UniProtKB/TrEMBL annotation:
Transmembrane segments: none annotated. Its main location: membrane. The lineage of its organism: Bacteria, Pseudomonadati, Bacteroidota, Bacteroidia, Bacteroidales. Residues 26-239 form the SusD-like N-terminal domain. Keywords: Cell outer membrane, Membrane, Signal. This is RagB/SusD family nutrient uptake outer membrane protein. The keyword Signal applies. The keyword Glycosyltransferase does not apply. It is found in: Cell outer membrane. Belongs to the SusD family. Gene3D superfamilies: 1.25.40.390.
């Protein structure tokens, strides 16, 4: 139940956070005596603020080969919002060059992580709103578990944006990112930890979070971390660390608890959905279906942040001339329903994004207003666990058949039944380890498009050459280009120069 007091606390914390962080570097500590927190409800509201339910990271898919900027569609008399992200799309040395407020991810994610530090350090002393101490202790432990999981989530994103991909052979000496676990006001210089230490911190936080959440269950909804969602994030982390056995252990545990997959077989039999016929109406209601990433879906474990793509992938060229790329659209095989459930070609030949199917557009002076009705782009769900298992087993010399089995389990629910049986079912004998890995990576691209995973997958796998077109010609991200590591925002380097810029 949401009470008026909750809104007052939320407003208080948001205002306090904005003022304090405007006066300090994003990594500098806020004095503890400025935090007027005493009850478990206070800390819950601080944690709510740390979950960041507003637009934070709209540009990450713009970096990838899943999105095209169509110069021919741009009208010079429109203030096209897609131009805001051209610096990112063209991989400028500092991608923030075209963003009015610069790259805000660094600031907002470290701010979020700081709030989790406050919760972790102080929640044990919080008083409860009920007399039953057992209930109060459950609340303390659960909120603390959430804070550990959310801190891990934030550092996972930060290290995969602003540091090199994890390599077990070099992680001890490769620079990662700064890690701040403190809430004190002492002045200090912030330097990067090694990549190994950053990932160890993420794993340690998740290992602390899982038992706290398992042993102190509370009904908080999928916009907050549960034990199962934390375990899913741990499986993803181990995959990135190339800890195949540990990734298998965690992903298997998630599937054992929740094996559900989003089943598209019935949708594939609907001729309004599975068709090459162009979408002539601008509304997604012209194509039936429910949001693929809706928190109401049984396969979805955790959702975070507003869907940030509608402002970039709107159907209105007055807003944007970014579209899902032709290479992505053409990567789907015959019978794969996802192609038509995620995207749809319009009558003008361009491709329209409809994956989430939350579409409640409100125009104020012809500006799209984002709202929570748009769903989410940062999601943890069971499909990822099947693909983690497939990839981890594909790295084992005796794991090809098992990996193919997990791929088929996933694919069977995404293909029309007839097509899966004739062409969609994979056979283990058709693969080597390398070709199987490439197949898994292609499957991940098709399954996770526009969920902020493609950029991370490109970084940690092949780092291929990609060419994008922009207003003034084209740009190429070379294979293994250092720009696969994003630049630390200049305003952060100005405050904390010891962090050091990333190589270019």
């Amino acid at each position: 139940m949401i009470m008026e007091k909750r809104y007052l606390y939320r407003l208080l914390f948001m205002c306090m956070s904005s003022v304090l962080w405007a006066c300090n570097g994003y990594l500098e500590e806020i004095p503890q005596n400025k935090q007027k927190l005493s009850t478990t409800e206070d800390y819950e509201q601080l944690l709510n603020n740390a979950y960041l339910t507003k637009s934070v990271l709209p540009y990450i898919d713009v970096l990838t080969d899943d999105m095209d900027y169509i110069v021919a569609d741009r009208k010079p008399y429109y203030a096209n919002s897609s131009d805001t992200y051209l610096g990112a799309h063209m991989w400028d040395n500092s991608i923030e060059t075209t963003m009015p407020n610069g790259d805000e991810v660094f600031e907002k994610f470290y701010n979020s992580a700081y709030n989790t530090n406050v919760v972790i350090d102080n929640i044990d002393d919080a008083t409860g709103s009920v007399l039953d101490e057992t209930v109060v202790q459950i609340t303390r432990n659960h909120v603390k578990g959430e804070a550990y999981a959310l801190r891990a989530f934030r550092y996972f994103y930060l290290v995969n944006m602003y540091a090199a991909p994890y390599d077990p052979a070099t992680c001890e000496t490769t620079p990662g990112i700064p890690v701040n676990l403190e809430t004190t006001a002492d002045d200090k210089v912030y330097r990067r930890e090694s990549l190994k230490k950053v990932y160890e911190q993420i794993v340690d936080d998740l290992k602390k979070a899982i038992p706290l959440l398992e042993e102190n269950p509370m009904t908080t909804g999928k916009t907050r971390f549960s034990a199962l969602a934390a375990r899913a994030l741990l499986a993803r982390t181990y995959l990135y660390m190339q800890e195949w056995d540990l990734a298998i252990e965690q992903a298997s545990a998630v599937i054992e608890s929740n094996p559900m997959l989003f089943d598209l077989r019935s949708a594939g039999e609907n001729p309004v959905i599975y068709t090459e016929a162009p979408l002539t109406e601008w509304t997604t209601e012209a194509v039936p279906g429910v949001g693929y990433l809706s928190e109401e879906n049984a396969n979805v474990l955790f959702v975070n942040g507003i869907n940030e793509l509608y402002i970039i992938l709107s159907s209105d060229i007055a807003q944007t001339v970014f579209y899902p790329s032709e290479t992505l659209y053409n990567s789907y095989e015959k019978g794969d329903v996802r192609k038509y459930y995620f995207m749809r070609r319009k009558s003008n030949g361009r491709i329209r994004y409809i994956k989430n199917r939350y579409y409640s557009m409100t125009y104020v002076d012809f500006v799209v207003q984002l709202s929570a009705d748009y769903g989410y782009t940062r999601v943890l769900r069971t499909e990822e666990m099947y693909l983690i298992l497939a990839e981890a087993y594909a790295h084992k010399t005796d794991g090809v058949a098992t990996a193919v089995g997990y791929l088929n389990t996933l694919r069977e629910t995404k293909f029309r039944t007839e097509d899966f049986e004739t062409t969609g079912r994979l056979q283990a004998e058709d693969f080597t380890q390398q070709t199987l890995l490439e197949t898994v990576w292609k499957e991940r691209r098709r399954e996770f498009c526009f969920e902020e995973q493609r950029w991370f997958d490109l970084r940690r796998t092949t780092r291929p050459s990609i060419t994008h077109s922009g207003l003034n010609g084209s740009a190429t991200l070379q294979k293994d280009d250092p720009r696969y590591v994003l630049q630390i925002p200049q305003k952060e380097l100005n405050v904390n120069p010891e962090i050091g810029a990333n190589p270019r």
